[in-house]
Amino acid sequence: MRDLLQEYDPEVFDAILGEERRQQSELELIPSENYTYPEVLAALGTVFTNKYSEGYPGNRYYGGQTYTDVIERLACARARELFGADHANVQALSGAAMNQVVYYALLEPGDSILAMDLTHGGHLTHGSPVSHMARVFQFHRYKAGADGRIDFDEVLRIAEQVRPKMILCGHSSYPRELDYSGFRRVADAVGALTMADVSHVGGLIAGGQLANPLEHGFDVVTTTTHKSLRGPRGGLILSKGEFAKKIDKSVFPGLQGGPHMHTIAAIAVALKKAAEPEFREYAARTLSNAQVLAGRLLEHGAQLVSGGTDNHLMVVNTVGSYGIEGRDAQKLLEEVGLATNKQLIPDDSLSAQRTSGVRLGTPAPTTRGMGAGEMTAVADLFVRALQNKGDSDGAEAIRSEVRALCARFPAPGPLLPTSA
Ligand code: PLP
Description:
- The longest helix is centred in the C-terminal third of the chain and has 23 residues, at about 275-300.
- It is built from 17 helices and 14 strands.
- A 7-stranded mixed β-sheet has the order 4-10-9-8-7-5-6, sandwiched between helices.
- The protein has 2 domains: about 40-275, Aspartate Aminotransferase, domain 2; about 285-410, Aspartate Aminotransferase, domain 1 (Alpha-Beta Complex), CATH 3.90.1150.
- The relative contact order is 0.15.
- The protein has helices at about 1-10, 10-25, 40-45, 65-85, 95-105, 135, 150-160, 180-190, 200-205, 245-255, 260-275, 275-300, 320, 325-335, 365, 370-385, 390-410; strands spanning about 25-30, 55, 60, 85-90, 110-115, 140, 165-170, 195, 220-225, 235-240, 315, 340, 340-345, 355-360.
- Pyridoxal-5'-phosphate (PLP) binds near residues 94 and 95.
């Protein structure tokens, strides 16, 4: 198949090779990225992409659904089993779509949602003013307290004031574990629905290492499938049985047309992988690696938002630690082969394009098989790269060390060796 593509479209083929080389020779520290399984890539590149399957198993608009029904039933059953959910919908095309689906399923335009502030760790799809959702629903904000942790007295105070229809928790840059029972108590006090977007930590919940909001009585849980869960790009909506019909109708015909059945096949494969004992070990190692990485950065004097991490990610205040804006730190790190992303810190005075920090995490290096020793080395390289800004020989030496580390821990998948 690769030969066929190479011969027919060398421009596209060369870009794929280039990306494979980049992924092999750089260390991916962006906490929302990962290397998926070869089996998942195999399922993605299949003839399921040819098929229209609007509707749900047993009730589709077109014929020829024998195998699509098998795939979607399998994916839903595996998702329900893995997360202990009454209901699962696997059709959302992405994380953004999955969250919109839930808002439209359970709320009316103009209803209010209480969600986490973006600079404190919340996500764009939780009603950022630049998103369309902010034009449809009224979003109110809670923040982390001075210690970097959520203060539930404050969340309750805001909830009593704004009387939200839904309380939303979940994050893309909050480095602490969420207390779902705390959110539940606030929601119960004001009669709100509860939704957790666990996109970042879905794999760590599936792997039994972090708390599962469904076990704390949450109404709906959403997660992307491509981050710590190591699946293809997609969205998974888990809910109590009473919301099943509303959510399914909100996905189709509410927001989307035909589901991407090749992706759903690949989600089914990833969910099978996530139920295996090795995945529990992977999730545990992702967390212990984050502890080592954060601990070593702190030893070097780096300022971490909230002083550390309980999960797979951390945010380094690069302005406070090194006098370097996040945008410039990301660039310096990329030049030495460390992929991170610029990140707003709580109440950041800089714009989202500049930022005062960078975010990093351990899901991808853990997938490569790295452990405590490598995380210590990565922290050292990170600090050297930022402390020795402007030293081009020093940067070249760091780049070689990163390359050597990556060569010792190849990324999985049909990727070329680093030397190719
Ligand atoms: N929700 C959270 C918490 C996320 O971190 C992300 C992506 O980073 C999304 C939703 C959106 O997912 P997608 O990029 O697949 O639309």
